[in-house]
Structures are given as structure tokens and as C-alpha cells.
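Title: Prediction job returns without error message
Component: structure pipeline
Severity: low
Priority: P3
Assignee: unassigned

Description:
Job completed but the reporter wants confirmation the result is attached to the right record. Sequence as submitted:
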Amino acid sequence: MPENTGQMADTAGQPAETVSLKLASFNIQTGINTSAYHEYLTGGWRHVFPGGRRIGNLNRIAALLEPFDLVGLQEVDGGGSRSHFIVQAEYLAQAAGFPHWHNQVNRRIGNIALHSNGLLSRLQPDAVVDYSLPGMPGRGVLVARFGEERDTALHLCVMHLALSRRARLKQLAFISEIIRGLPHVILMGDLNCTHDSPEIRHLIHSTRLCDPLFEVKTFPSWHPRIMLDHILVTPEIRVDKLWAISFACSDHLPIAMEVTLPVGLRWGV
């Protein structure tokens, strides 16, 4: 749950509490545990047919995510037969004790697979908007708003970008237009590019999001070499810690961040 981390004086001279949040982003690969490149071929059937280990992996993921306040999920199944018709965002929310969740279906393959992004939250969003991203169908971004007033609201964006650089640049230009000028933004997801890529540089230059603090390697999970998963924030949100979690239950590692919200930005206080 959100923690009070200290006190600061507000404009009326009264103490104002600061709030710390724990954030996480995780490409869960629909609960498939991949531990080597060859398993993309030998275990490819798991992307189509249900497997016996998927529920156990979801339970492990739920236990990992329980301490967090806000979680963005990618490669979530929205209730296809390959996942035993389970809406995985809902399942993880219930198993980890999150009272609020959202599932954004971006691509549907019959009743087999519903490719989705997901959101788990300790606080109810005032609004959640789903956007389809430009390029080939099947990619999207969900934008959740916590708070009613623009100047004191927190906006959270969860996304999974395309594999090609050209498509990613178009998608990030689209996202930049959505968040440009918003004072308090957290952007997270599997961006399929590294922290020093032209795509990230474009995003930083087009918005108020800050440069990544440093590289934390998230892919592949069994021998992390590069950073494909990111959490970026606007300058008024103080980053206290950023790390990749050593948790091999997908082909990506989860990425986590602890932040302190600016005074006046109300997160359930």
C-alpha cells in the first residue's frame, strides 16, 4: 500500500505529507516460463494450447506483485482458450489483492488468444482510456488518470510497442501527443528498444519525461543482456530506486521503481 514518507510545509504553513509508491512493469508472456532461446520453437505450442504450468506461474507472479501499488502488464491473455478462458489481469488482481484492474484487448485470435495489456492498482482510477497504436493492428496503450483536476492528477500509461523501429517511432509520436503538457506522468511497458535508442531519445525530447537513470537489463530473463522494459516519469516525481527483479517466469524480467510523489499530487491521501 502507499506509504507516507515524510512531511513538508504547504503554502499555508501546514505540514503536507509526501507519498511513496512502488511501481512495476512486467511482460508476463501469458504465464509461459521461457528459459532458453530454443524454447521459442520447442515450446511455441504454449502460445496456442493450454499448458499445465500456466496457473502455477500466474500464482508465482501474483505473489511477486503483491507488495506493489501500481503494476503495468504486457502480453496478458484476456480470456482465450490457451489460458483456460481466464482473464489474466483479473486473476492476478484477485490473487495479489489488488482491488482495481483493467484489461485492454489489442488483438483477438478467435477464442484462442486475446492479446492484452493490463493494469493492477491499489487505488481506483478516475478514468481509463484505451488507445490503438498506429501501425499493424494489435498494439495499444492504456492511459489511467488518478485524480479529477489536471494539475494534481497522476496519469499512468501502459504499453507494448512494435518490433520494428519505424513502427515504434510512429507509436511514440502518437503517445507523445497524448501526454504532452500533462504535469505528472508515469510511462511503463515493454518498449522493445534500449534506453539509449533513437526511440527513447525522441520520447524524451517530445515530452516532459526524464532520461532513464541507468540501464537495468531485462531481456532475456535467463541471461539478461539488454533493457527492453522501461519506467519513465516526469521531473516532479522523484525516483528513489530502479531495479530489475531476478524472477524468471517469462522471457522478460520485471522492472520495478520506487517513487515519491510531489506534494499536492493526491494519491488517496
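Comment from assignee: result matches the submitted record. The mean pLDDT is 90.
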